[in-house]
Backbone:
C-alpha cells in the first residue's frame, strides 16, 4: 500500500503542475470509500479538466450539472454516475465521491493528460536551452502552466492557420505590381539575412577569442545576461522535476490502475451468507456455508429455474429415498 500511496502522490503533483487545484492522496482514499469530504475537490479537478479539453468555461449552472453535461458529450457512459438522488441542498449523484473518482480516472485517460504535459515540458526545455532565450520566453512558459493554456497548445497549435492573403489579380497591371512587390520583399529578406549572418559571425569570433572552453552561443548569451540565466535555471529545474515525476508515474501506473480496480470492487462487495442445512444427519456445513442462496440453477425435472438451495435439498431427498 505504501507504493500505491507514492504513485497517487505523484499523480497529485502532476495534476497540480498542470494548473489544476491542489489535491492530496488522502482525497483519493476517501473517495474510494465514498466519503463526502472529497467531493468538492474532485469536482474542481473535473471542472478544470473539462474546461481544458472542451475549451469552455463553467456557467451559472451547478458543478454537478456542468460535469455531467460535458462528460456525456465526451462519451462517458457509466449509468450509475448519471443517477441522482435528493439531498437537502440540491440533486447530488448517487455514490458521489466514488463516482467522481472513477470519472476523473476515465477523463485522465481520455484527454491524455500526462502525455500532453510531457510533450509541452520537453518543448519548453528545448526552447530554454537553444537559441537566445529571454525573460519573455520564461514568462510565457510560466504563464501557460499557470493558466492551463499549455493543454490546448500541445495539441491544437498546429491546427491554427493564418488567414491567407488574396493573391489573385485581374489585370496585367496588378500582376506587375505584385511582381515588383515580391521582388522588393525578397531583396529586403536577403539583406536582413545577410545582416544576421554577419552579426552571428562577429559574435562567434568574439566568443571564440574571449573564452578558453567550448561554449555554445546559448550559453554565452546566458552568461552575458545573469538575470535571464537565473530565471531559465529555475524554470529548467522546475521542468526537470515535472519530467522526473512523469517518469515515476509511468513506472508505477500499473499499480494505480490495479488500485482503481479495487475501487470498482468496493462499490459492490461480495456479501456471502452462511447457509446451514437442518434435519439431515449428513449435512456438510463447510460446503453449505460457501453457497450463496441467491444463486439459481436449472432443474431438469421441472424445466424451470430454481434456487440452488432448493435443488440441492431435492437431490439429497431423492438420494435418501433410493437408499
Residues:
Amino acid at each position: 500500500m505504501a507504493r500505491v500511496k507514492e504513485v497517487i502522490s505523484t499523480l497529485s503533483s502532476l495534476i497540480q503542475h498542470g494548473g489544476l487545484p491542489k489535491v492530496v492522496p488522502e482525497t483519493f482514499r476517501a473517495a474510494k470509500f465514498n466519503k463526502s469530504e472529497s467531493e468538492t475537490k474532485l469536482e474542481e479537478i473535473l471542472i478544470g479538466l473539462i474546461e481544458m479539453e472542451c475549451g469552455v468555461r463553467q456557467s451559472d449552472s451547478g458543478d454537478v450539472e456542468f460535469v455531467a453535461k460535458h462528460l456525456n458529450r465526451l462519451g462517458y457512459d457509466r449509468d450509475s454516475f448519471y443517477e441522482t438522488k435528493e439531498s437537502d441542498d440540491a440533486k447530488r449523484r448517487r455514490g458521489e465521491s466514488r463516482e467522481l473518482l472513477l470519472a476523473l480516472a476515465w477523463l485522465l485517460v481520455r484527454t491524455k493528460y500526462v502525455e500532453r504535459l510531457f510533450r509541452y515540458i520537453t518543448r519548453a526545455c528545448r526552447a530554454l536551452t537553444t537559441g537566445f532565450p529571454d525573460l519573455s520566453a520564461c514568462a510565457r512558459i510560466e504563464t501557460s502552466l499557470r493558466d492551463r493554456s499549455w493543454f490546448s497548445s500541445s495539441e491544437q497549435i498546429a491546427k491554427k492557420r493564418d488567414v491567407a492573403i488574396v493573391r489573385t489579380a485581374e489585370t496585367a497591371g496588378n500582376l506587375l505590381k505584385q511582381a515588383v512587390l515580391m521582388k522588393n520583399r525578397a531583396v529586403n529578406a536577403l539583406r536582413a539575412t545577410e545582416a544576421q549572418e554577419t552579426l552571428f559571425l562577429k559574435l562567434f569570433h568574439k566568443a571564440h577569442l574571449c573564452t578558453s572552453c567550448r561554449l555554445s552561443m546559448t550559453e554565452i548569451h546566458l552568461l552575458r545576461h545573469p538575470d535571464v540565466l537565473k530565471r531559465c535555471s529555475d524554470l529548467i529545474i522546475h521542468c526537470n522535476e515535472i519530467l522526473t515525476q512523469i517518469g515515476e508515474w509511468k513506472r508505477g501506473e500499473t499499480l494505480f490502475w490495479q488500485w482503481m480496480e479495487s475501487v470498482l470492487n468496493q462499490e459492490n462487495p461480495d456479501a456471502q451468507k452462511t447457509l446451514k442445512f437442518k434435519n439431515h444427519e449428513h449435512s456438510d456445513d463447510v460446503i453449505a456455508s460457501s453457497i450463496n442462496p441467491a444463486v439459481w440453477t436449472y432443474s431438469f425435472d421441472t424445466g424451470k429455474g430454481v434456487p440452488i438451495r432448493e435443488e440441492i435439498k431435492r437431490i439429497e431427498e431423492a438420494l435418501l429415498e433410493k437408499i
User: Anything to note?
Assistant: The first helix runs from residue 2 to 17.
